[in-house]
Specification:
By secondary structure, the chain is an alpha/beta fold. The protein has two helices and eight strands. It folds into two domains: 5-67, Signal recognition particle alu RNA binding heterodimer, srp9/1 (2-Layer Sandwich); 83-135, Signal recognition particle alu RNA binding heterodimer, srp9/1 (2-Layer Sandwich). The strands form two sheets. A four-stranded mixed beta sheet has the order 1-4-3-2, covered by helices on one side. It comes from Dyella agri. InterPro entries: Glyas_Bleomycin-R_OHBP_Dase (IPR029068), PhnB-like (IPR028973).
């Protein structure tokens, strides 16, 4: 079993996933648009170029998303959860934190804590909350 986070965006999923691919060194392996859906799937014309599904692969990890299908399912910002990234290297934790923080809002600067060699929390420029964690060596 694998838990996979699935994010919803307000029309900017493609830009967000291009950004995440550059931050994490991954690759977008699937991107489909609402306009590619079968004709019997009703949708507003303004949704045709929006992302119906996108998949980012980073090693054996996966992150997926779509743009909110309006007006049926209007976009709501993420509340009460974060995408947590676990890393083995403090330097890599700092690099990824810095990349995600560009244009975003740092909630807790990355640094050493009693539970981790590095930990930091932020909301990126697309409104996605992240927690970057690098545990102390065992």
């Amino acid at each position: 079993m694998q838990f996979v986070s699935y994010l919803t965006f307000d029309g900017n999923a493609e830009a967000a996933f291009d950004f995440y691919a550059s931050c994490f060194g991954g690759k977008v392996t699937w991107l489909s648009r609402y306009g590619e859906a079968p004709p019997e799937m009703p949708m507003p014309p303004e949704m045709r170029d929006k992302v119906m599904h996108v998949r980012l692969e980073v090693g054996d990890q996966v992150l997926m998303a779509s743009d909110a299908m309006v007006p049926q399912c209007p976009y709501e910002p993420i509340k009460g959860c974060s995408v947590s990234v676990q890393l083995d290297s403090p330097a890599e934790a700092e690099r990824i934190f810095g990349a995600l923080a560009e244009g975003g809002k740092v909630q807790m600067p990355i640094g050493e804590t009693f539970w981790a060699a590095r930990f930091g929390a932020l909301v990126d420029r697309y409104g996605v909350p992240w927690m970057i964690n690098c545990p102390h060596p065992q």
